[in-house]
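User: I'm putting together notes for a lab meeting next week and I want to include a structural view of one of the chains we've been expressing. I don't have a solved structure, so I'd like a prediction I can at least talk through. The sequence is below, exactly as it appears in our construct file.
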Amino acid sequence: MRIKRLNILGSGAFLLSVSALLSRVLGVWRDHLLAKHFGASGGEGLYNLDVYYAAFRIPDLIYSLLILGAVSAAFIPLFARHKKENQLNEAWKFASSMLHILLVTIGFLALLAYFLAPFLAPLVAAGFEPEAFQLTIKLMRILLLSPILFALSAIFIAIQDSFRCFFFRALAPLLYNVGILLGIAFFAKDFGVVGVAWGVIAGAVLQLLIQLPALSKVGYRHHWLWGMRRKDVRQAFGLMGPRVLGLSLHQLTLFANTVMASFLATGSITVFYLADNLQALPLGMIGLAFAITSFSRLSELAAEKTLEPFASEIKSVTHKVLFWILPATCGLLLLRHEVVALILQEGKFTESDALLTADVLFFFLPSLFAQSLIPLLSRGFYALHNTRLPLIAGFFGAGVSILVAYGLTFSLDWGVAGLAAGFSAGAILNALLLLVLLQRALPFAIIDKLYLFKIILASLAMSVVVFGLNQFFPYAGHVVQKAGCLLILTGVGMGVYFGVAHLLKLPVLSWIKKH
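Assistant: Thanks for the context. Below is the predicted structure for the 515-residue chain, given as structure tokens.
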């Protein structure tokens, strides 16, 4: 039974990694088109991407606090407990109750935010000129439809995760990006960022619709009840409290970065988010994929009499995350200028925009390992029904992030690169605190030092080879030539990494062969 479960986890992680890869391919194409049509430093009026990214902040806040807080900290552990105890009908009643309560709550908040948009916009766009400020309000009102649609999708996806049914949920981010691409392709030219915002809503609708077949597959039974007095619903909201506060700290960091960037040169917000999206490729494929697929299993193991199986699972998944994320970080650090130029530099996105984006990406990447571990380590605490300690770690991380970002951006005049450096400092502190706090509760070490040393050694060997070869590759010319050079270097780098890892007898290689 143990081997079968691991196979399910492995295939699920692989499926979500492939989904993340395909989604990021679409995301890369989306960012390419956005950069091409709107640029960064040259944006103005309806064609100012800074306004588009700033308008996302309030809808994202509603979604992150209520949906992510409910699903990640409360829904899956309690739903999994009902399922483990063979109380499937109670699980469906719990799911229906949570769905109704969240929809009503989010719908009310979205409607309230719609009317209060003129007063909320200054929270994220204090440095904007009047024209950009009014456009931010308009876009915010359109985008407030998205958290309502995402609420439905999130519950349906969480149910699938509990059954380890990952196929349809793996398609969701693909269709979301397809919707945005349609908005760019058909409406960006005439309607600017307003057309892109409607593309976001179209993507949210497509993401929801693709989940419906999965509900039938897992045997979902809807119950028309409110369920506020149910014990499991009250427990869910009790668990949500600290998680919502923790997510609010992350949102506070994003708000602070957006506000600070609004006082910088036009295009600073755009550059910040484009660089963040580039680092999201390995983060989504590795860190989030493993965290998502392991959560249900961790929730079940946390209910065992001893924590040894739970600790073993945390250690195993942590090693897998580090095995993949460290070489990916090194490769992206070395090839960041080439990657940014290939993906973004075209049309209105100038060479100076590309250079600035690569500089900002440089300061994001040192924290990529931390950003990849935070979702897993946090879910480890949630599986143990402990949402307080992740809140404490998040509080210190957010505080350091904002203080460092402000000091570097304005006091030392680092500009938008200072925001990325501050973000990384906070993420690293958050991950280290989570690691130390979770380690105290477990019977043996989460990370084997020798294993980590071998990964670092293999990554360094790969970096030396890639750096040396990169000096001789001709990137000038057609986009196909540029892409070809990057693919060759990536292939050589992976070959060196896996070769050295094999020589060092890293145990993860046997796991790769199985899956």
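A couple of points you could mention at the meeting. Residues 287 and 321 are 6 Å apart (CA to CA). Residues 1-10 have pLDDT under 50 and may be disordered.

User: Perfect, that's what I needed.
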